[in-house]
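Lab notebook, design round three. We kept the backbone fixed and only want residue identities now. Task for the bench partner: fill in a sequence for the structure below.
Input C-alpha cells:
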C-alpha cells in the first residue's frame, strides 16, 4: 500500500471530491462492514482540459460496490470579477497608460466620489486593453525561442553575427525573460504563497497550488433543511436568497457603544488620533501593504497603489482631507466580499439552515 501511495504522490495525482455517500463498499451483512474502496485519480493535465472534476456515488443495486459517476464542470459561475494582474506592470508602456487613463477620469464631485469613479474608469480601460492584447503566452514564448534559435544557428554557421543581429537577439532574450516572469507572477498571484520569491521559476508548482485553491473553494453542493442542491442555478439562487434575507434589517435596534464600560486613551494618544493626515504616513501605509492579499470588490491589488503612487497621491490626499474635514466617504469605498470559512476540513459545505 505504501508503494501505491508513493506512486500517487510521485505522479501528483489528485482525488476528485466525492458526494452522495461516505462509503463505496459494504459486505451486505446484518452488521455491515463499510469502507471507501473505490475512487478516481486524475492529474493536473486532466483538470486543465476538462475543468473541475467531481465524483457522485450512486446507489448500489446488484454489486456490493457503489458505482461512481465522474462529472466534469467547465466552471461557469457567471462573469468573472475584475482582478488587477501584477504581470501587466511588466508590459512596456503599461504604467504610462495607467497614468494617462487616471488623468482622463471624471473630475467632478466630492474627493471620494471622484476617486471611486476614476477607479471604475481605469478598470474599464484596462479591460479593453487586456482584451485587445490577449494572446497565448506559450505561443509568444515559443515564437521568441524560435527567433533566438534561428540567430544561434546563423551564428554557428557564419562564425559570428552582425552587430544588428546580435542586438536583436539580446532584445529577444529580454522579451522572453519578461514573458517568463509574467507567467511566474501570474500563478504566484493565484497561489498566494508568502514564502516563495518571485525568482522561483517553478510555475508548475504555482499552477498546482492555484488549482488546489480553486478545488478547495469550489462549492459542489449545499444542504438546506435536509435537501441537497447540486445544480449551479440552485446553489446561486439559494445563496442569494439566504444572504439577502440575512442582511435585511429585521430588527432596527442597535446597541450604543457609549453605554459600554470601555477604557479611554490617555490625552496625548487620543489627540494623535485626530491629527490631520499627512502625505508621508499615507505613503508609508500604502507601501507597507502586503503584496499577497486578495483585492476587494474593485479588483485593484496593493501593487496598483504602490506602482501608481506618483499619479494617485494627489487624489488620495484629497480624499483623506475630505474625510478629515467633512467626514465624507463614497458608499462604494466600503464595499466588501463575504468569504465563507468552513469550520472543519472537508465539510459537506456549506451547510445552510433556516433554523
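Proposed sequence:
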Amino acid at each position: 500500500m505504501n508503494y501505491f501511495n508513493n506512486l500517487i504522490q510521485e505522479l501528483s495525482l489528485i482525488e476528485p471530491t466525492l458526494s452522495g455517500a461516505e462509503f463505496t463498499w459494504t459486505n451486505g451483512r446484518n452488521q455491515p462492514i463499510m469502507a471507501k474502496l473505490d475512487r478516481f485519480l486524475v492529474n493536473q493535465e486532466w483538470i486543465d482540459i476538462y475543468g473541475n472534476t467531481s465524483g457522485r456515488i450512486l446507489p448500489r443495486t446488484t454489486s456490493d460496490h457503489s458505482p461512481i459517476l465522474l462529472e466534469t464542470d467547465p466552471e461557469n459561475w457567471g462573469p468573472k470579477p475584475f482582478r488587477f494582474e501584477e504581470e501587466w506592470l511588466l508590459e512596456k508602456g503599461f504604467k504610462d497608460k495607467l497614468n494617462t487613463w487616471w488623468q482622463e477620469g471624471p473630475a467632478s464631485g466630492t474627493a471620494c466620489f471622484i476617486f471611486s469613479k476614476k477607479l471604475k474608469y481605469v478598470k474599464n480601460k484596462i479591460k479593453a486593453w487586456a482584451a485587445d492584447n490577449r494572446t497565448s503566452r506559450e505561443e509568444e514564448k515559443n515564437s521568441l525561442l524560435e527567433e533566438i534559435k534561428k540567430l544561434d544557428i546563423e551564428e554557428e554557421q557564419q562564425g559570428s553575427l552582425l552587430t544588428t543581429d546580435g542586438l536583436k537577439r539580446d532584445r529577444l532574450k529580454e522579451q522572453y525573460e519578461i514573458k517568463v516572469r509574467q507567467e511566474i507572477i501570474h500563478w504566484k498571484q493565484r497561489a498566494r504563497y508568502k514564502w516563495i520569491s518571485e525568482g522561483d521559476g517553478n510555475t508548475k508548482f504555482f499552477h498546482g497550488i492555484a488549482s488546489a485553491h480553486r478545488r478547495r473553494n469550489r462549492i459542489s453542493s449545499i444542504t438546506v433543511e435536509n435537501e441537497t442542491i447540486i445544480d449551479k442555478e440552485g446553489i446561486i439562487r439559494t445563496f442569494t436568497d439566504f444572504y439577502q434575507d440575512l442582511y435585511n434589517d429585521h430588527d432596527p435596534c442597535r446597541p450604543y457603544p457609549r453605554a459600554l464600560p470601555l477604557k479611554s486613551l490617555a490625552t496625548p494618544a487620543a489627540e494623535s488620533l485626530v491629527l490631520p493626515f499627512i502625505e508621508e504616513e499615507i505613503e508609508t501605509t500604502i507601501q507597507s501593504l502586503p503584496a499577497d492579499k486578495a483585492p476587494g470588490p474593485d479588483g485593484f491589488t496593493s501593487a496598483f497603489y504602490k506602482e501608481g503612487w506618483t499619479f494617485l497621491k494627489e487624489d488620495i490626499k484629497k480624499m483623506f482631507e475630505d474625510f478629515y474635514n467633512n467626514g465624507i466617504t463614497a458608499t462604494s469605498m466600503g464595499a466588501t466580499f463575504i468569504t465563507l470559512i468552513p469550520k472543519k476540513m472537508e465539510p459537506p459545505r456549506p451547510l445552510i439552515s433556516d433554523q
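Keep this in mind before ordering anything: The chain is about 50% helix and 10% strand.
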